[in-house]
């Protein structure tokens, strides 16, 4: 699941690269992550490449990633799935449903197509908290993934196979939305469980969410291309928070929110970044409010206000603090 390290200041407290070109490590401007994220997300529809976008994000977080090898592996996977489809009658192989089923078999059932090594949900790290666990390269190498890497690979391969697929979210969770071209019906595919058809009600039961959040598009929405790319770019924000680059994290959050205004997760992360700026620059330096220099009081109050506003916007959309088991 998506990393969750949000910090909210309660009211009772006093203070509380272009996506179409493969990014090499030297091509990624880590000094301006907001510009990088904006370029990634705003790729024209006809030029969007989810594999390159995901690898560029992973490369931002970990420059040692071999993006060329990972891209070559996904290319080979598409060839293999098409080979599997060639065993079907042409009229069947051309249908959206059969192509989706072939992809599902390729990923989750052992056979010659994957050398008997199907992809599995990593139960030892279900929330994807281990360093690098959410990267595409790690998933390809280990065949064990989480609800970031697993739906992303399904999306990447599905798009290459001509499927109408995108991402969707539940609290701290990402999954795939698939629309059957023949019937026009849209299905949830739970990629951490064999990409099986999953009802909205199942998500509402397993990871409770408010009806307001669903109505506002926070959860269970069939995301647009830009919205899906903003989800893929989220690790940039998480990495900036983890490495103490809080001002950059706020700037990236604004880019993600511009692409997907109902992204409550990003609003919460933005609020967290403001809290950490306040904690680092004010609270830790001046334990007592009376110690705060007069020229820093306005700055401190602005951070406090921005933290509360970010959380208030998320809550207005129907977001509530998820309860992890």
Structure at a glance:
By secondary structure, the chain is of the alpha+beta class. It has 14 helices and six strands.
Helix content: 40-55%
Kindly report the spatial arrangement of strands forming the biggest sheet: 3-4-5-6
Regions with little confidence, pLDDT below 50 for 5+ residues = 9-22
| Alpha-carbon Rg, integer | 21 Å
N-to-C terminal Cα separation, in Å? 12 Å
Using DSSP, what is the number of strands?
6
Instruction: Write down the overall geometry.
Output: elongated
What is the residue-averaged pLDDT? Answer: 90
Tally of separate helices: 14
In N-to-C order, the SSE pattern is: HHHHHEHEHEEEEHHHHHHH
- Strand proportion, as a percent range, falls in 5-15%
Query: What number of structural domains do the residues give?
Result: 1
- Major beta-sheet overview: 4 strands, antiparallel
Structural class: alpha+beta
